Amino acid sequence: MTIIDNTSAVPAPRADDGNSAPLLEVRDLHVEFHTRDGVARAVNGVNYTVDAGETLAVLGESGSGKSVTAQAIMGILDMPPGRIPQGEILFRGQDMLKMSAEDRRKIRGSKIAMIFQDALSSLNPVLTVGYQLGEMFRVHEGLSKKEAKAKAIELMDQVKIPAAAARVNDYPHQFSGGMRQRIMIAMALALEPDLIIADEPTTALDVTVQAQVMDLLAELQREYHMGLILITHDLGVVADVADKIAVMYAGRIVETAPVHELYKRPAHPYTRGLLDSIPRLDQKGQELYAIQGLPPNLLKIPTGCAFNPRCPKAQDICRTDTPPLYDVTERDGGALPGRRSACHFWKEQIHG
Ligand SMILES: Nc1ncnc2c1ncn2[C@@H]1O[C@H](COP(=O)(O)OP(=O)(O)OP(=O)(O)O)[C@@H](O)[C@H]1O
Ligand code: SF4
Ligand SMILES: [Mg+2]
């Protein structure tokens, strides 16, 4: 059995085994925050890859390190109190953490775009959306005001904002939450990035609008063949749009799998708990399962498996030995590409 230790500096092998470098590869990333009370270890050896045209969903409870990992990729972290003591962030094979500030800025400014949860605080309230969308083209491509406005309308059309030409001079507060989030998507698309990181892009929206915005994002991602990292704590939204999932707990990846396999046969008790806590239409009125206890204090992560105080399957070894990310296989040892689990008892979990 192959064991991949996600606590060591050894990079995880690539799932595709191809010769070309993946679009983005995060290797053994660690992030810590130096606070008054001590060092908070928010990210503790994360490995993941995203290829062009692929959607990776990153899932986990609040505080598991999903956003901090994204912020490290975007380069909005490597200043106090945040620190990246270890790890690599490879964009097309080149480590962004080792590049000159200028080279990094070029990649982060045009090749990678980020969409945040809260469009209202990301848009400038005193400028029209047309001006803000057009600014990208004026600044980066030197277009005239008129040309930039035409581009802004084109983008608004692309993200399906009705009557774009009539609304280009409206201010952010004049749009609904869903429409504002479409404007954020348009902003991200403007420079035709290779990778989009969407951090809870629909969480602030009504449920019906959530699905529409998610569908739009998925459609554009396919059309432009971009990589997409979709951060969410909602397993329900990812089933239709993601190719693969990485589940995070206490700053580590605890399970990775192609999306449909994860739903069918989770190989980690934490993932099982997350799946059991999704509301299901056929179980209306029944009490919803909730994982007992709370995520750990990052100043004092439990020894052994960080999930052990909450895990219904925990045994003695779980309190002393940190589980590596095991390659998960079929019962007869047959390969299950892309499947890994950081549970000592993954076999029992997946094969019963
Ligand atoms: N600037 C900071 N200073 C200190 N601690 C921080 C800082 N930023 C983030 N953290 C800590 O890092 C941990 C991981 O945070 P992160 O935002 O990545 O969680 P998340 O998985 O995105 O959660 P959520 O689902 O709530 O967005 C949290 O415990 C958070 O308190
Ligand atoms: S290693 Fe132990 S505590 Fe951790 S998830 Fe597996 S059974 Fe639970
Ligand atoms: Mg977050």
Summarize this, please?
The chain has 352 residues and is α/β, with parallel strands linked by helices. Helices cover 31% and strands 24% of the residues.
Q: What labels describe this entry?
A:
single chain, 352 residues, alpha/beta, Rossmann fold, nine-stranded mixed sheet, four-stranded antiparallel sheet, disordered N terminus, binds adenosine-5'-triphosphate, binds iron/sulfur cluster, binds magnesium ion
What can you tell me about this protein's structure?
Its main location: membrane. It is found in: Cell membrane. This is ABC transporter ATP-binding protein. GO terms for molecular function: ATP binding; ATP hydrolysis activity. It holds the Pfam family oligo_HPY. With 352 residues, the chain is of the alpha/beta class. It has one domain: Rossmann fold (3-Layer(aba) Sandwich), CATH 3.40.50. Helices cover 31% and strands 24% of the residues. It contains 12 helices and 13 strands. The strands form 2 sheets. The protein has a 9-stranded mixed β-sheet, sandwiched between helices. It has a 4-stranded antiparallel β-sheet with strand order 3-2-5-6, covered by helices on one side. A hairpin with a 2-residue loop joins strand 2 and strand 3. Helix 4 (129-141) crosses helix 5 (145-158) and helix 7 packs parallel to helix 8. The longest helix has 18 residues, at 207-224. The two termini are 19 Å apart. 40% of the residues are buried. The structure holds adenosine-5'-triphosphate, iron/sulfur cluster and magnesium ion. Residues 33, 35, 40, 42, 60, 62-68, 81-82, 233, 298 line the site of adenosine-5'-triphosphate (ATP).
